[in-house]
Design brief:
This protein has 293 residues and is an alpha/beta fold. It has a single domain, classed as Thiamin diphosphate (ThDP)-binding fold, Pyr/PP domains (Rossmann fold). It is built from 11 helices and 8 strands. An 8-stranded mixed beta sheet has the order 2-1-3-4-6-5-7-8, with helices on both faces. Helix 3 packs parallel to helix 5. The structure holds thiamine diphosphate (TPP), iron/sulfur cluster (SF4) and magnesium ion. Thiamine diphosphate binds next to helix 2 and helix 4. Thiamine diphosphate (TPP) binds next to helix 2 and helix 4.
Length: 293
């Protein structure tokens, strides 16, 4: 049996308000402990906001600033610039946002921050919907997934935010998950030591929103990676691609069948989803190969 090992500096404390079993709290624990205590967190409305909590009951022992859903990356930019002006250029400014706050509502602020190459570490907890407000679809919701606002299944595919950010020539953008903790810690530490804008997209199965069993969060993230639904990869300076988990070892239905949001799918629907995953995987393999050549 393999155990997850990471240093725990006590930056994340008990008593938060995540749903029992949600791996977003574990993901925050991994991130803040990898970053350490010389850090400030900027958090827009989201499940992450209720997990981090507000003063004096915050579960983070670093300064935590709650901002608006539109403005997380802009707020983080301002916090970082003020720290630099006060002679603290090495303090890490972390943004802890959801996918609605990243792919949709906060995207203009994020795109502008990346274009200015602000020195922030932006984390997107991607639970593929507006989950804190009851589970509406976002542009991160995948094709065919049922949400509160797509009761017959979403008609359009998930937006490819990694490619969009890579097209900004961002210094570092990567995907990560608590189901592959060593890779996750390595990416946070690597990102922390790069100057400029860094973004990590972290997959979070929403137990309530996806219809996943309370004890299956880690299992579902591993299935997402193993089936190629959520490839673990990094892009540096918009051009250098690295696939971190290089095997796609199981059919997508192993992943889909764990979730109530996909219960309505026909065999043809599953075949179409599989075909989309195979195409994207082949594209990533080509990009990775081209980065090596
Ligand atoms: C401009 C704006 N619209 C709507 C809201 C209400 N709201 C608060 S949290 C939230 C959900 C955010 O979704 P996401 O960023 O994906 O985070 P999650 O709740 O899924 O963690 C919404 C819509 C808001 N605070 N501000
Ligand atoms: S609503 Fe979903 S993402 Fe939010 S804390 Fe609960 S299980 Fe986690
Ligand atoms: Mg969300």
């Amino acid at each position: 049996m393999r155990y997850i090992e990471y240093k725990d500096e006590g930056v994340f404390k008990s008593g938060h308000f995540a749903c029992a079993g949600c791996i977003e709290s574990l993901s925050i624990r991994i991130i803040v402990n990898a970053v350490g205590t010389d850090a400030v967190a900027v958090v827009p409305p989201s499940c992450g906001a209720i997990i981090c909590g507000g003063y004096p009951n915050s579960s983070l022992s670093i300064p935590t600033f709650h901002t608006t859903l539109e403005a997380a990356a802009a707020s983080a930019s301002g916090v970082k610039r003020s720290l630099v002006a006060r002679g603290k250029p090495d303090t890490t400014v972390l943004c802890l946002a959801g996918d609605g706050g990243t792919y949709d509502i906060g995207f203009q602020a994020l795109s502008s921050a990346v274009e200015r190459n602000e020195d922030i570490l932006y984390i997107c907890f991607d639970n593929e919907g507006y989950m804190n407000t009851g589970g509406q679809k976002s542009s991160s919701t995948p094709l065919q997934a049922v949400t509160g606002s797509t009761p017959a299944g979403k008609l359009t595919p998930k937006k490819n935010i990694v490619e969009i950010l890579a097209a900004h020539n961002i210094p570092y953008v990567a995907t990560a998950s608590a189901g592959h903790a060593e890779d996750f810690v390595r990416k946070v530490e690597k990102a922390k030591n790069i100057r400029g804008t860094k973004v990590l997209i972290v997959l979070i199965p929403c137990l309530a929103g996806w219809g996943v069993a309370d004890n299956a969060g880690i299992k579902v993230t591993r299935l997402a990676v193993d089936s190629g639904v959520f490839p673990l990869y990094e892009v540096e300076d918009g051009v250098k691609y690295t696939l971190n988990h290089t095997k796609k070892s199981m059919p997508v239905n192993e992943y889909l069948s764990q979730q109530k949001r996909y219960k309505h799918l026909s065999e043809q629907d599953i075949a179409e989803i599989q075909s989309g995953i195979d195409k994207e995987w082949a594209r990533l393999e080509k990009r990775t190969q081209a980065s090596v050549d």
